[in-house]
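Limitations

Structures in this collection are predictions, not experimental determinations, and the ligand pose is part of the prediction. Treat each record accordingly. The example that follows, with 2-acetamido-2-deoxy-beta-D-glucopyranose as the small molecule, is included so readers can see exactly what is and is not provided: the inputs are given verbatim, and the output is the predicted complex.
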Amino acid sequence: MCLSLRHMERVSGLGVGPLAAGTVGLLILLKVIQRLRHKQSVQDKVVVITGASSGLGKECARVFHAAGARLILCGRDQKRLQEVVEELGNKNSVIQTYTPCTVTFDLSNTSVVSSAAEEILKCHGHVDVLINNAGISYRGNILDTHVSVQRDVMETNYFGPVALTQAILPSMVDRRTGHIVVISSVQGKISIPYRSAYSASKHATQAYFDCLRAEVERLGLQVSVISPGYIRTNLSINAVTGDGSKYGVMDKTTARGSDPVDVARAVLKAVCHKQKDVVLAGLLPTAAIYLRTLWPALYFRLMASRAIKEHRVKEE
Ligand SMILES: *[C@@H]1O[C@H](CO)[C@@H](O)[C@H](O)[C@H]1NC(C)=O
Ligand SMILES: *[C@@H]1O[C@H](CO)[C@@H](O)[C@H](O)[C@H]1NC(C)=O
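Predicted complex:
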């Protein structure tokens, strides 16, 4: 009796433990296989990057160039774009790399975007990946902000990417392949005080590209929205203020932000793994995104205190 009980225990112990471990192991293995199977390389792919002469755009240019992409770099300043091209050319690489093309235009002027798109399409005849990166930041109190500034930020951050995407989209639909990436922000998911124009433009961006993703999936196209937190770039120095002048200050939050190289690598990963929505932020901002949905009253309370604190700092 005693013996048979012990025997049964041993049998059940042998059965459940390894079975559970085996199942978990199998699931992990399947996940890994799935990831590898869906992983795509950007080698030889035609990749367009806007805002490529500085900050995150320039880092994306480095990362995608090193991965063997055929780049088309866009920006307002031909000289600075050319400097980026020269910088990239000097690196030796184990894989085949290509000298990028450049297309110079002002993304915030939607009347020039369609001719710019034609020029982009002429470089290699098609576009595989469009990375809408260019953008401008804003700092200011709504009470002191001209409506024209609200509109200008929207032109660059929202209508610019929308116009360029819609100009490139038909060529992707014709080929039944293509990937559209947009660099949004955590502020596209939650608003924080004194960033009205920026947050609003990024919320609009998130909404538009979520719609686009749903509409073009049946046509074989991919859409990725990347939402980083603060990145260590000149974005805050170049930010506009309520009267349209330059902010000119490197914020502490920006100086302590993520390394643009890490963000650029995450963009490459999002493209290779066809990730749909990527939040690249620390625990606190990520928690705030959930709080806004699950406990809005507390979120509003926290933002109001933050506004009072920032207002006090500005007064001093
Ligand atoms: C940021 O601005 C400074 C000063 O204008 C400049 O020297 C630096 O190269 C810029 N950095 C980037 C990443 O564009
Ligand atoms: C937009 O581009 C057009 C054509 O080049 C130009 O005539 C117009 O002045 C530009 N608008 C702005 C606001 O720069």
